[in-house]
Amino acid sequence: MAIEVIKPGLATSVQDLGRPGYYHLGIPESGGMDRFALRAANRLVGNDEGDAVLEATFQGPELRFKQDALVAVTGAELPPLVDGATQATWTSFAVQSGQVLSFGFLKRGARAYIAVAGGIDVPEVLGSRSTYALGALGGFAGRKLEAGDVLPIGATREAAPAGREVPAALRLLPPSPGVLRVLPGLYDFRITKASWEGFFSDTWRVATEADRIGYRFRGGRPLEFVPRAQPFGAGSNPSNIVDSCYPYGSIQIPGGSEPIILHRDAVSGGGYFMIGTVISADMDLIGQMQPNTPICFVPVDMPTALEARREAGERLAALRRSLA
C-alpha cells in the first residue's frame, strides 16, 4: 500500500514521537511539534500512538491513495477534502483507492497531523521515523516531502471504524492572546530586575522566523544586562555566556532583544543566555501558534509546572479512554 504525493504543501514531513537519547550528541529528539494531536490522530485510525504520521505546516499536501485506507486529521483546523468533499477534523474517515486527499485553507492553529491506518512505513533511524531535516536524518529521505514521492504504508493493526471522533473538550489549540508558562533560569541572573519584570509583563508576538528548530518573538522591550567582565570564551556581547547545554523549551535571547524558544529540532548547546524554560505542558501549544500571534510569558515555580504536567497526563488518559 502506498500514497503518492501530488503536491507536498509548504513543509510536510514524516514525524512520530521522536528519538530521545541522542541530544547530548547533538541529535535532537525531533518528532511532532504537537504530540497530543499526533497521538490522537494515530488512535483514531487504530495505530499505536507513536506510529509515524505526516505533519503539515500552514498548508496541507495533496495525496493520491493507491489502496483503501482509514485516515484522520488532527491538530490545526485545516479542513481535509476527499475528492473535494469536506471531512471533519479530529474524526476518522475512509479514503478509497484512487481518491485524492487535499486540504482547504487553514482556519486556526499551525500544524495538522495526518494519520493513515498502518502508519507511514519509512525505515527507522536511531529508533525513530521522524524527520530531522537539518541533519538530513530519518523520515522520507531525510527531508520534507516533494511532489512525486511515494510513501509506503504499514499493515493495519486494528480494524478501527470510520466516524470515531475525539471529544471537543479534549481538542486544544492556543487562545489569542496566548500564555506560555515559564520556569525562570538558568541564567536569568544576567539581567536587571527591571528587565526581568519587563520581560514577563510585555506582550510579545510570534515572528515569521518560527519553525521546528525554534520560535522567535518580537515586540517586547530590549533587556538590560547586569554589568560584568565577560568570562573567557563568552564573547563580548553581554547576552553571551560560555557555551552551555540548551534544554528543550529554553528561551534564549541573542543580543537581549528577540526571545527564541527552542523546539523539537533544536541545537543542543551554544553561547546565548537563557531567561527560562517553557514548561513541558505548554510545548504543544507553541507548535500551533501562527506568526503575529500575541503571547505573554508567565513565570511559574516547579510545583506549578509539575501540576500542569499532571493535568496534561490526565487529558491524555481521557483521550485513551474515549477511543478505547
What do these coordinates show?
By secondary structure, this protein is of the alpha+beta class. The chain is built from four helices and 20 strands. It is elongated.
Please tally the helical runs, counting DSSP H or I stretches of 4 or more residues.
4
Task: Sum up the overall morphology in one term.
Answer: elongated
* Helix residue percentage: 10-25%
Separation of the first and last Cα atoms: 26 Å
User: Which blocks of ≥5 consecutive residues have pLDDT under 50?
Assistant: none
Overall pLDDT score: 96
Our Rg estimate from Cα atoms comes to 20 Å
For the largest sheet, list the strands in their spatial order. Answer: 12-19-16-17-14-13-20
What portion of residues belong to β-strands? 25-35%
SSE order? EEHEEEEEEEEEEHEEEEEEEHEH
Helix-strand layout with pairing:
Layout: E1 2-7, E2 13-15, H1 35-44, E3 53-57, E4 62-65, E5 69-77, E6 80-82, E7 85-86, E8 92-95, E9 100-103, E10 108-116, E11 150-152, E12 178-184, H2 193-201, E13 204-210, E14 214-218, E15 240-245, E16 250-252, E17 260-262, E18 269-272, E19 274-278, H3 283-287, E20 294-299, H4 302-322
Parallel strand pairs: 12-20
Antiparallel strand pairs: 1-4, 1-11, 2-3, 3-10, 4-9, 5-8, 5-10, 6-7, 6-9, 12-19, 13-14, 13-20, 14-17, 15-18, 16-17, 16-19
Outline of this structure?
The protein is α+β, with helices and mostly antiparallel strands.
